[in-house]
Write a structure and sequence with these properties.
With 335 residues, this protein is α+β, with helices and mostly antiparallel strands. It has 2 domains: 8-87, Roll (Structural Genomics Hypothetical 15.5 Kd Protein In mrcA-pckA Intergenic Region, Chain A); 102-331, Pseudouridine synthase, CATH 3.30.2350. The protein has helices at residues 38-45, 51-59, 134-143, 172-183, 258-265, 285-293, 321-331, and strands at residues 8-9, 14-15, 21-28, 63-65, 68-69, 82-87, 105-109, 112-117, 153-154, 163-169, 188-196, 202-209, 227-239, 244-251, 297-304, 313-316. A hairpin with a 2-residue loop joins strand 7 (105-109) and strand 8. Helix 1 crosses helix 2 and helix 6 (285-293) packs antiparallel against helix 7 (321-331).
Length: 335
């Protein structure tokens, strides 16, 4: 860990799995920083922090001046201002692409494959032409087992940062069978979400949501241009010290970003959601690091039928490692 020049470390660095460290930084505005933009002051006073990263931290609500959150990068500092923020220095090592392994295969029967989609893996090819998305990686895994799944295709999608049960079909007919169940709302879907605030014991959200705006990648509530959406929620656990809740989500409809938008609407945004959520100032460094990695939405369980069968079967996905770590911390009496 490099020296932070005139920035002051407020706590010990927190080691994380990638070998990087969470740093908590405090900068006191003296003569040289008076009148300087917030983002430029952060870059000048913090070794290894790029201006783009500084702007991102400000936009995410991770930067405080005199204990007040500031989201304006052009804000000018005054003499004596105390600037604080936490960040993980960039790892210069090229990140390893996500792969599909044996443990990710939850179900493989009658032409239906269910995987536990890892966090960070796109369901389908992105605009950037990312080669690492679900279908080619699942094909590659089964090729190592001597199976050629030429016509493998997705039956539905999950957001890149959402983990959990994802269904694929080996033929167009099987994919159509699964997609029909989603369209007819006969598939039972259960998600788990870690949210900020104390959620109600039981609640329902109904509203009309727009399609994703291609300019900013978000949906919004709109009575005029939106489509009906509905989700039932149950609070499973509440972690008083951190002010967070574990919520079970049972969506009836399947609009884009539905659960994220619904929980934000009732002021229980999903932890780590940089689009619909907010940075939580009460979190410890350990929790802050985990929350900063991705949003905490997990497709926990699906109930569906196989072709030619009427009895529903159930596929359940265990939590990823980050989920296991954060829940262990949240349940700890010391957190």
């Amino acid at each position: 860990m490099g020296r932070l020049y005139s920035a002051k470390m407020l706590c010990k660095p927190v080691a994380i799995e990638t070998g990087r460290y969470m740093q908590t930084v405090e900068i006191l505005a003296k003569r040289g920083l008076v009148g300087k933009r917030l983002d430029l002051a952060m870059v000048e006073e913090t070794k290894g922090l790029s201006r783009r990263k500084a702007k991102s931290l400000i936009d995410d609500g991770s930067v405080f001046v005199n204990d007040q959150r500031v989201r304006i990068a052009s804000r000018q500092l005054s003499f004596g201002d105390r600037l604080t923020f936490r960040y993980v220095p960039d790892n210069k090592k090229k990140p390893q692409p996500v792969q599909i392994s044996e443990r990710d295969i939850l179900f493989d029967q009658a032409g239906v494959i269910a995987i536990n989609k890892p966090v960070g893996l796109p369901s389908q090819e992105t605009k950037k032409g990312d080669r690492f998305h679900v279908v080619p990686l699942v094909k590659r895994f089964f090729q190592t087992k001597g199976r050629d799944l030429e016509h493998l295709a997705l039956a539905h999608r999950l957001d890149k940062e959402t983990s959990g049960v994802l269904l694929l079909g080996e033929t167009p007919e099987i994919v159509a069978h699964l997609m029909d169940q989603f369209r007819e709302k006969t598939i039972e879907k259960t998600y788990h979400a870690l949210c900020y605030g104390k959620a109600q014991d039981e609640f329902e959200v109904r509203c009309r949501l727009t399609a994703i705006n291609p300019k900013n990648g978000t949906v919004k509530v709109s009575q005029k241009s939106g489509k009906d959406s509905q989700t039932f929620f149950t609070r499973k656990e509440y972690y008083q010290k951190s002010g967070m809740s574990l919520v079970e989500c049972r969506p009836v409809t399947g609009r884009s970003h539905q659960l994220r938008a619904h929980l934000a609407k009732v002021r229980n945004p999903i932890a780590g959601d940089k689009v619909y959520g907010d940075t939580h100032p009460k979190l410890s460094d350990e929790l802050y690091h985990l929350v900063s990695q991705h949003h905490y939405l997990h497709a926990r369980l699906l109930k569906f039928t196989l072709p030619g069968q009427s009895k529903k079967l159930q596929v359940k996905a265990p939590y990823p490692k980050t989920w296991q770590s954060i829940i262990e911390l949240l349940r700890s009496p010391l957190t």
